[in-house]
Amino acid sequence: MSRPVTIGRLLASFAAISLAAVILGAAICAMSGVATGLWIRNLAAWGLGALAAAALARWAGDRLGPVIALAVPLCLGVTFLGPGLEGVHRWLVAGPLRLNAAMLLLPSLVVATAVLTRRHRWWWAPAFAGLAVLALQPDASQALAMALAICAIAAGTRSWAEGCSVAIGALILAAFSWTQPDPLQPVAEVEEVIQLASSHSPMLAWLAVIALIAFAAAPSLATRSREGNLTGGAGVALTALLSGWIVGPVLGAFPVPLVGIGLSPILGAWIGVGLLASLMRRDRANADRQTACRG
Q1: Secondary structure of residue 193 in the 3-state scheme
Q2: Would the pTM count as exceeding 0.90?
Q3: In b/e form, how buried is each residue of 52-71, taking b as 16+ CB within 10 angstroms?
Q4: Coil, helix or strand at residue 26
Q5: Which string of b and e fits 104-122 if b means at least 16 CB within 10 Å?
Q6: Are 82 and 93 in contact (CB under 8 A)?
Q7: Domain map (residue ranges) of the chain
Q8: Virtual CA dihedral for 90, 219, 221, 2, nearest 10 degrees?
Q9: Residues of the chain under the 70 pLDDT cut
Q10: Residue 129: helix, strand or coil by DSSP?
């Protein structure tokens, strides 16, 4: 029998794994001569994300999910209001910071969708709207990741026909995104950081890969004893999304999360985990109320 899942276990396990990945990335970048101010930001983002996750775990309520589901596709669409880079629109600009909108926002959308689609099938619409925006930006890596998450959620639906149609639709949109031209050239410390690590030591590169795999698996593993309920389903969906994040750079010039330079995946992953922890808290409160009623 697996150990009971606790909020502390989820947050602590994710904190340890994600911090290891961020520190490895910082070390690789420092050894490669990347400006200290860049990799220090990753460490700062990790701390800020941990605080945000703790706050969400403690205070996020059931009403936040619909707000997230409706707001995220709109926020992704805001990327088209900026000039973009060479016709590519993936970023939200905040002063000197350029944030990858999908990596910042998709984890929260995935957790919200995993919950809301169990209540009503129309909540698939925001997820598909977000996926369509990703295909048009274009951001093939994030479209693939979102499609994998949608497939994971669809696998838990009660209707076989609904699950299959949703999964097929998501994969078609993701496939379309890969047909769009993407002229952006890779930046070594962002998209090619594993190659940088390998240039110093193959062992360092393997450690980074192992840390990324553990990072992607953490939400599902930390909620594995809750499979079949909302928390377990959301954990699997979040793992599917993060798995897409680490597969994307293998297929093209896309950002490597946590190990590469970039605030958005660090903050976004933490927010998703915080929402997962808040869902766990509400599940536990409901279970306690049901136990009290039976008593």
Answers
A1: helix
A2: yes
A3: ebbebbeebeeebbeebbee
A4: helix
A5: bbbbbbbbbbbbbbbeeee
A6: yes
A7: 7-287
A8: -160
A9: 1-5, 225-229, 285-295
A10: helix
